[in-house]
């Protein structure tokens, strides 16, 4: 089959690789129909995730058709049209049973790698480096899905592929960001980052009762979508002082809930960007926590900071004094998609959430590198490959 | 000992049992074997270190082991460490064994977890470095280590030993020791404890082994002990996977763009060998 393979930092190639086969009884094989790029892939491509190997197939946000099932798969059959959670959960460990699927004890065959850095291992993720299991990703004609009964969700009839594919990753991630923020009816919510995850977080925040959502980015197209489609008030961080703007827009209080949908590759117009970039370059710091710092400073006293943008290693100069003395609550984690996907598919079907607009470019696998270049330059919201 | 830290087993109140001082922790290497041991060991050690991966580390360890075994048989090093080739000295006996202590919580009832483990024939299903465990009678069992790497297998032949259960409290604990003349004297204890809040069963494993040939062997083993610790932890993880999900999590046999894996159509020898060659310790 064809697959988009990592060959080094900034180097992706479409190659011929063997077809996947059932390895374990709970596996299924899917024919991939749509497979999207995600901001997380940029961390791999830009060299911030250290355990990639040449030849790894990338991609983790996808939907497709079940073409083969293992002997222990009970809830799926050939021909089912399904969307698959980007993070693997076994369904049986204590974490999965308490719906914290991204903390699954069993789904990372290389658990001993992150254990060294993190003290314990999080779940495996499709196409996302060997530290996260080394699973072959979805930018391919076919993909093997372990624990298929847990990870695959049948897409309701009438819901188009183009909307359903984002129920794999961007939507449950954005929704979880809003859920973690513990939004109370009437709350004012600030959201950094208007990529796919940020857009879904904006809509989810409204669904969970926010009265206002203020979204922050600097990409004009993304800000426009945040405003026109997702319904947020928007701030361009290249033009305004975010701290000042947020405080004044909230009567001096600051937003009740602050959500980081950017993560370790944040950029800024200020000196802090060069400070972090330099430290990152010499490996004194692995992540640029620009947004995290901003969120902590902006958040109202007693408020919540929800972090869904990914951090991988060490960060520097976190204003802990502000967090402590303002009695902030921190919530964070990789998405527990299996917890949210069924309900999100319903919201999509009822039109209470809108995800299809995230697909701004559809391409073939052969155009993989072109697609990622476009995405890295933020000239597209999400490129989706149709193998 | 140089290591001032209290062993984990004492924190847990486990691991009273000590391995014998017999087998290869005594000098019992014949002349020809000795020469082979040095040559093969040196080869393995360089090969292993060059690979720089976890599996490489294991190879290097075994290699280092063998060089030492071979060398110590006919060089005056014995004198230096004050030992006598026939009988273990008091110093050897009093020397600390090396300990590995690993725990894991399994989301299954204690009875079930214990029963699976106590059926010793099950162990190689998740302990990938074992090829066979045979129960000889209720207390005694025969263990065969798997040397999946062909080079290693050729050089070392098989490593086998007998073990004896010294203490058994059903659903609670097992204490065992290798019987005299094991290649690597070892002893251990596994405890099964209810985890709080119905989270299943805590499995606490303490394994002790006697470094071959006294203090120098000890120093070599100390160096490589982290690799063994990791191996034991992965064993426990697979045990957990089998009990909780009924299968062992793996990516072995999945497609990639790596030509080497495609052409031979051959799967890497083991999960450890498969895993990233360069990066495994590069996580921040
Ligand atoms: N936790 C999870 O399970 C999970 C799942 C998917 C994605 N993610 C993470 O969520 C984050 C966003 O994903 P995405 O796909 O939307 O990425 P994306 O790259 O499409 O979007 C990120 C956006 O952040 C903006 N940005 C950069 N610096 C900023 C700043 N200082 N202030 C405000 N905005 C800033 C960029 O302009 C861009 O529009 C990434 O870190 C990704 O890894 C997490
Ligand atoms: Zn993603
Ligand atoms: Zn699990």
UniProtKB/TrEMBL annotation, chain A:
SMART domains to which the protein is assigned, alphabetical: PKS_ER
Cofactor: Zn(2+)
Location of the Enoyl reductase (ER) domain: 10-385
Regions that span the bilayer: none
EC number: 1.1.1.284
InterPro entries reported in the protein's UniProt record: ADH-like_C, ADH-like_N, ADH_Zn_CS, ER, GroES-like_sf, NAD(P)-bd_dom_sf
PROSITE patterns linked to this entry: ADH_ZINC
Record carries keyword Metal-binding: yes
Top enzyme category: oxidoreductase
Family membership: Belongs to the zinc-containing alcohol dehydrogenase family.
Protein known as: S-(Hydroxymethyl)glutathione dehydrogenase
Natural source organism: Fibrisoma limi BUZ 3
Gene assigned in the entry: fdh
Automatic annotation (TrEMBL), chain B:
Location of region: Disordered: 1-26, 247-284
Residues in coiled coil: none
Database matches in InterPro entries: COQ10_START (IPR005031), ORF3 (IPR047137), START-like_dom_sf (IPR023393), YgaP-like_TM (IPR021309)
Residue ranges occupied by any Coenzyme Q-binding protein COQ10 START domain in the UniProt entry: 106-233
Superkingdom as given in the UniProt entry: Bacteria
Domain Inner membrane protein YgaP-like transmembrane: 27-87
Protein family membership: Belongs to the ribosome association toxin RatA family.
Name of the molecule in the record: Cyclase/dehydrase
